[in-house]
Specification:
single chain, mainly alpha, two-stranded antiparallel sheet, 2 helices, 2 strands, rod-shaped
């Protein structure tokens, strides 16, 4: 009595592969727009945080300089370096 051979050798059929590809395409069509919205929201959140830090730095400068606003030409130096009472920026702190 001869053994009957199984014709199915463990490989996937073309129909099974097409179904899997279709399912992956549907999942991608749903997921990709959701991920792009998340990226845009993260950028908005980072911008909001940066603006809050900048506003706080300007408020601190005004409090230390009797309500005077920083000069727009040298605002980066005035907010990131040491300044005297007149607002002149210096790289080192004056101890006197």
């Amino acid at each position: 009595m001869a053994k009957k051979r199984n014709r199915h050798n463990g490989a996937f059929s073309l129909l099974e592969l097409v179904i899997v590809v279709a399912i992956i395409a549907i999942i991608a069509a749903i997921g990709i727009p959701r991920m792009s919205r998340g990226t845009r929201g993260a950028g908005d959140s980072a911008l909001s945080g940066n603006l809050t830090v900048l506003r706080n730095a300007i408020d601190l400068y005004k409090a230390e300089h009797n309500g005077t606003d920083p000069n727009t030409a040298t605002i980066a130096d005035q907010l990131t370096q040491y300044t005297d009472s007149a607002g002149a920026a210096e790289t080192t702190k004056d101890t006197t």
